[in-house]
């Protein structure tokens, strides 16, 4: 059970979340867990679970089994970071397959977090926040002002973004742009078609024929420490305002 969590098993695998607590973890049975108006983290574990976030910005972790993840109000995330295999999730079509996503039904979900394996994550017409995690990930925001999130240089180097468009952003805020400094989380400070020779610089390339790319230099040696690839029909971020740093 998560710290600060309280839940009461009811008949038929139903779990009631008390108002004094925000998070709940189910069992290996077919659970129904309902949150409240705050930002809940609800985890179903195994079984065919139903997770209802209610209002608030909720994170729903269905686990294994064919789960129904209903975010309700707020900005809600379907989180597959605990999946033992890669997942395929498309918020536009409702398609879910593979890993813990197999058999899932997603309702009122805005954001996606992938697994440590090879994922395919697609958003919808709204504003989506998409994080691939580890593995080789194919990320598509679809319409809307989307944010592609990378928590480390290794995560960034495993990603292909299919449709970066005007209004989208790349979130590199969790990546230390200068690994030469100790105990300081530096932000990237420049972008162009070449590295500056200083840590914290980004460079991009797009020729309209091959895949575009965005690379980052985090130690100032003039070599890329990560590379994010972009599809043939995708734009490439070319200015610092395209990023969350």
UniProtKB/TrEMBL annotation:
Coiled-coil features, chain-numbered ranges: none
Keywords: Repeat, Secreted
GO molecular function ontology, one term from the record: calcium ion binding
Cross-referenced InterPro entries: Hemolysin-typ_Ca-bd_CS, Hemolysn_Ca-bd, Peptidase_M10B_C, Serralysin-like_metalloprot_C
PROSITE patterns: HEMOLYSIN_CALCIUM (PS00330)
Record Pfam families: HemolysinCabind, Peptidase_M10_C
GO cellular component terms listed in the entry, alphabetical order: extracellular space
Compartment annotation: Secreted
Entry keyword annotation includes Repeat: yes
Cofactor(s) the protein requires to work: Ca(2+)
Domain Peptidase M10 serralysin C-terminal: 72-230
Name of the protein: Peptidase M10 serralysin C-terminal domain-containing protein
